């Protein structure tokens, strides 16, 4: 495994690109707009500069990592990669359309990993001609700091494909866990309903946003409160995951809180828009 393509340069995509480049992989990143590629590169640059400042890496390490990254709006940039990691918008139809194109463009032996946070890998895989080479590789935000990768086999994923991405996760300094395909996998099935519940508590006026987060930080030793964490993940992503849990399980306990819907409708998506439950401007 030498050359890896990353599709998407958002919060997750840029983090994945950084971690791959820092670990010696040649990375090509693709986004639909040049502006997104520039923003993704700027994020990686900024993060690497912070590491230099903290004396975790040298200026040379930073330059070498950046030298391993190239970006393009053309999907053909991934034609010769060994692995594609798809980190695009959490929408099944959009992912399927994209991966159909990826399948046609890449080498037959190229593995396709999806960073989906809750969608079915089996469904995603069926948009390609080689579902045995499609697997879930779910990173956590912020990718450079979070040690976990959930590895998810679709119904048709081969053991060889699973082994390749499991070993890659380890080579990146992460701890992989094997998860059977199920809505939300492990972490998001537990975490996102917790965030939704915190939003419900806020909406009912039981406590302020600050106090809800303080309660969970000091009462449960969580590094961040659930509302700040929702802002970090992106409230649109939280809503999309709740919708998947709600529709797939059909259980009202997964119903997205009305305030979560309102926040998304109002464009208050959290850190990425400068405003969510807290202000980031
Ligand atoms: N990008 C890259 N690295 C970052 C970062 C960022 N945005 N934020 C923090 N880090 C790194 C820092 O560089 C630092 O690394 P070193 O120890 O090597 O110096 C480390 O993380 C700790 O950072 P800080 O000391 O600055 O800050 P902190 O101790 O307050 O930790 C945090 C920040 C890591 C974000 C911590 O608050 C935390 O763990 N929060 C919970 C995050 C979480 O639960 N993420 C999962 C979200 S769910 C998800 O992603 C799945 C999904 O599908 C929705």
TrEMBL record:
<dbReference type="GO" id="GO:0006635">
    <property type="term" value="P:fatty acid beta-oxidation"/>
</dbReference>
<protein>
    <recommendedName>
        <fullName>3-hydroxybutyryl-CoA dehydrogenase</fullName>
    </recommendedName>
</protein>
<dbReference type="InterPro" id="IPR008927">
    <property type="entry name" value="6-PGluconate_DH-like_C_sf"/>
</dbReference>
<dbReference type="InterPro" id="IPR013328">
    <property type="entry name" value="6PGD_dom2"/>
</dbReference>
<comment type="similarity">
    <text>Belongs to the 3-hydroxyacyl-CoA dehydrogenase family.</text>
</comment>
<dbReference type="GO" id="GO:0008691">
    <property type="term" value="F:3-hydroxybutyryl-CoA dehydrogenase activity"/>
</dbReference>
<dbReference type="GO" id="GO:0019605">
    <property type="term" value="P:butyrate metabolic process"/>
</dbReference>
<dbReference type="Pfam" id="PF02737">
    <property type="entry name" value="3HCDH_N"/>
</dbReference>
<feature type="domain" description="3-hydroxyacyl-CoA dehydrogenase NAD binding">
    <location>
        <begin position="3"/>
        <end position="181"/>
    </location>
</feature>
<dbReference type="InterPro" id="IPR036291">
    <property type="entry name" value="NAD(P)-bd_dom_sf"/>
</dbReference>
<dbReference type="InterPro" id="IPR022694">
    <property type="entry name" value="3-OHacyl-CoA_DH"/>
</dbReference>
<keyword id="KW-0560">Oxidoreductase</keyword>
<feature type="domain" description="3-hydroxyacyl-CoA dehydrogenase C-terminal">
    <location>
        <begin position="184"/>
        <end position="280"/>
    </location>
</feature>
<dbReference type="InterPro" id="IPR006176">
    <property type="entry name" value="3-OHacyl-CoA_DH_NAD-bd"/>
</dbReference>
<dbReference type="GO" id="GO:0070403">
    <property type="term" value="F:NAD+ binding"/>
</dbReference>
<feature type="site" description="Important for catalytic activity">
    <location>
        <position position="138"/>
    </location>
</feature>
<dbReference type="Pfam" id="PF00725">
    <property type="entry name" value="3HCDH"/>
</dbReference>
<dbReference type="InterPro" id="IPR006180">
    <property type="entry name" value="3-OHacyl-CoA_DH_CS"/>
</dbReference>
<dbReference type="InterPro" id="IPR006108">
    <property type="entry name" value="3HC_DH_C"/>
</dbReference>
<comment type="pathway">
    <text>Lipid metabolism; butanoate metabolism.</text>
</comment>
